[in-house]
Structures are given as C-alpha cells and as structure tokens.
Amino acid sequence: MKDDSRSIVLLVILIMGLCLLTWQLDEKSFWCDELFTIRMADSSPGQILATVAADLHPPLYFLAIKGWAEIAGTSEGALRLPSVFFALVGLWCTWRLGVRTVGRNAAQIGVMALACSPLFVEFSRMARYYSMTLAFGVLATLTFVNALERKRWLGWIVYGSVCALLIYTFYLGAALILAHGLFFIMDRQATRSQGIKWLLSMLIVIVACAVWLPVILGDQMIRAGGHRADFAGSLSGLALSLVYPWYAFSIGETIFPWFPTAVPSAGVVLGLIIWWFSCHTIVWSRLMLLLILLPVLFASLVTNFISTGTPFLNIPVRALFIMPYFSLALGAGWVALPRLSWRIGLALLIGITWAFSLFNYYTNQQFINPIYTASARQVARQIAYQAGPHDVVIGEEDSGFSYYYLQTGRKTPYFEALHADTITAYITTHQVRNVWLVTIGRDGSRRLVPQKIKNWLKGNYCLISENGYAEQDPIYRKVKEFFLHRPTYRYRMLVQRYERLP
Prior knowledge:
66% of the residues lie in helices and 7% in strands. With 502 residues, the protein is of the alpha/beta class. It has two domains: 2-371, no CATH class; 374-500. α20 (401-407) links the parallel β1 and β2.
C-alpha cells in the first residue's frame, strides 16, 4: 500500500513537471543556438555530420532531432518537445537513482525539487541537447550503480553503451564518467573481477568514440580556442566560473541577487546539501559529491582555458546534467533536518523564491543572461506589416530576426548586416526610401556590431524612430558596467528606422 501511494506521488510529480515544461512551450522566439538546431533539422544526415564536425558539437542530438522534425516539423513547440521528453525521462531516472542511493523519502523530495527547479525548467524546454545530456547522464549513473551492486557482465556492458551515448550527446558528459571512475577506484569493496568488468565498459566507450575522436582533436580543438569571452583565460574568469553556477543551480537565472529572498534561499539550498554531506557517511554520498563537484570544475576549466568563446554565465547550462544529483542531495539534506518546523520554514523560503524565479522566466523578466529574451518573432511581424516595397530591412542572423522575417513572405528586400558593401551599393542604386535596421545588444561579441552600416546611414539618412525590446534592468546594467568597464546595452533588441535625406 505504501509503495502504491509513493507511485502515485511520483506520477503527480511527473505530471507537475510536464505542466511546467510545456506551459507556453511555443511562446518564446527561437534564440541563436536553437536556430542552429533548425538548420540541422533541415539538413541531410551527411550535412549534419559535416556541420557539427566543423563546429564544437557531437552529432547524436542533431541526428535525432532531424528524424523527429521529419515527423513533427520545425515549429517552436514541435522542435522543443523532444527536450521535454528527455527531461521527463531524467526525472524518472532520478527517482530510481534516488531510491537506490539516498532513500525513498529523500528521492521523493529530490525529484520534486528537480521538477520545480527554475534552472531545470528553463533549459529543459529549449531545442538543444541539454535535457538529453541530463537524461543519458543520470541513466549512466543508474546503470553504474546497478552494475556495482549486481556484479554481472551485462550490467557493465549496458553502462559502457549508455556512456558512449552520453559522449556523443555532449562532450562535457565525460565528467560524469570520470566521477564514476574515481568512485570505483576509491571503492574498497571493489573486487578484481569487477575491475575487469569496469575496464570492459571503458573499452566499449573508447571503441565507440574512436570514430569521432579525429574530429574532436582536429578542427574542433582549433575552433574552441578562437574568440575570447569576457574574463576568459584569467584567474578572475576561473573564479566566476566556479562560483556563479551554485547560485544558478540553487535558484535559477531569472532572479537577481538583490531580490529580498534570492541570496538567503541560495544559501539555504547550498546549506542543506552541505548539511547532508557532513552528517552522512554512506558510501553513495561520496559518489554524489563527486558527481556534483567534478563536472563544475571540469566545465569551468574547459570553458576558461580551452573553449574560451563561452562566457562564464553559460557554465550552469553546460553542467545542467548535475542537477539530478544536486536535487537528490538537497532532498536528503531537507529530510535530515531534525525538526519539522525547520523543514516547513525553509521549504516556504525556497518555494517563494522559486515561484518568483519561474514567474520571471515565463514573463521574460530578470534574465541574468539576456540572450534568451529577444522578441524576434514579434519584431519581425511588426516590421513586415510596416515596411513598404521601396524600403530595405537589415538584420543580424544570430538575433533570430531573419528567420522569422523571411517566414512572413514580405517582398521588402532583406539583407544580413555583415554584408555592408553589398547593402550600401543596393541602397544607393535603388533609391531606397526607408531603411529598417534591427540589431541586438552585445557584450562579449561587440566586434560584430554593424558599425560600418550605422556610420554610412548617419551620413546619408536621417534617424526617424527607435524602438527597444526586452529592456534590461537598470541595476543589472550598472553592475555589468562596473565589472566590464564599459557601457552596456539597454535593450536586447533595437529597431531603428532611417529615412532618406532630401
């Protein structure tokens, strides 16, 4: 009877997670990385392999999304549904892992915390590989625990196969395999027979990944060390990469630290996790500790010194796959509290903060990383309605504007802002009446601002109107200006209309 009631609780949690993950799933515009996913969905398998080989990604997610898009299409909701599916798989696997490692009560609280986690909800809805990595990661850990306990060859073969899938989904998933290996080496109860089986599982991973290894060590390593984001390659950048993720894991990226309950809630979440690790010495707590700490350290080192084009703000999503272990440790810490009043009080504090964080996410407010806030679809429709046949529209590809504008079917000529010479030649020869310039706010990639186009327009056209979208919080802007030592943008997307001088 007790098992039946817990199964019902798990079902309720999964339904709640499904609701949070699918609520307004198609409401937000695609952002630049999701547009890359669309490109892959519209490509052939051979083109996908060639494109991701020339980029920084393994191919599994994009091949899978290609197959899905053939069935469901590439609308916002359709392309994001596979991520929701893998997020639910991740929740179920987290439950199974939690029952085996921290106990049923802690597993129940941990899975509920994961389902409601603002960071989990935000990134598990995107048309990206994040939730797929999380699902394969927690499944790899579950099969690892299963192989350790049952000591069968088949268990280790399954574990090695899942690890290979994890690597082919996201390279940083290797940090989980490293954590498993360190735990196995430290396990005093591991026998020589188990060691041979574990080596077999690692051999499966090596053989499976050998085909793709030349790609990783070739063009991808060269591309990784190109553009440098702010603070990359410095000790301050490493410090930010190591500290910031814990804030995001605790309360999400859609609530600023000056919100009254933000920092206290983050402190409580981290305090509960530390409390559990300090008062429990069960063998699985060491595994959980490795699974939480190693990936963040791994992601920070790779981002700061190898893949230097990735800003430290992206570390939480790069390490999203640790969220199951983080949440289970949180659930175990909460269950370990000696007084019911403490549990209720701290749960209320965290719950209020998470509710505000989720509200901000759904309403497009307080994004610490504003890259996700551009209203490209809305802006494209407005300009398509207002621009005339004798006008020209100029946009930036990574803003998402061009994708939505070209879908409107308007005959007003459209140009990418990078083609400055082509644009000025066309405007000059065709006596264009109005020029609509759509740009996005930039920090680390300010070199891409179409300044040449702006300077030419100032000399030949008059700025008539200027409308901003997704305005950034004034306090947040001042904080960024203090650390970056330069002015920051006010709007994530800016639309300027220029009229030809008489």
